[in-house]
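subagent[fold] <- orchestrator: predict structure for attached chain, return tokens only, no commentary.
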Amino acid sequence: MSSRFTLRPYRPGDLLALYDVCLRTGDSGADATVLYRDPLLLGHYYAAPYATLCPETTFVLDDGVRVQGYVLGVPDSQDFAARCEAEWFPVLRSLYPLPAAADTSREARMVRAFHRGIPAPKAEWAARYPAHLHIDLMPMAQGGGYGRRLMQSLFASLEAGGAQGVHLGVGLRNLNAQGFYLRLGFQELERSEASVTYGLRFD
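subagent[fold] -> orchestrator:
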């Protein structure tokens, strides 16, 4: 890997940087900063619980000044959903009450996600693809093979922990990400009106 970036394990001091990367890639890979008044909402759901509860399977890409990307994984999605219910979402629900039913804003949708929690994977995925992940890279870190190396680091960590496969979801608009996952060997598991779910076995 080029000396421009260092791939390393997550450290607790990286947490705010993870929030920032999550927001700046939160619109199907594009910057979502202008879409949210509260800049922490996306990170509260898609980044911070992973790094906080599963730091051993969180890796970052560091340019020596700041974090420019990350991969966040959990070895057992069912266990992670239960831990989030017990250890993560109760505080968020007290800070973010359910919005009015008529509120259809992006922020309201995220707050409702806090109250729904992390969905447990479908039974067939839980058996064959028990782990799941999120990966986000800032533009300056894209296209140099860094995403693949982040994923390979995560796969090795998940497999060493006993996971036999991993799944992930990606928005239908994010065609670049879909191509990236297919090149890594992921197979399509399910397609909806808004997203595609992919799975990869390690054996």
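orchestrator: received. Logging for downstream: The chain has a mean pLDDT of 94. The domain at 6-201 is CATH 3.40.630.30 (Aminopeptidase).
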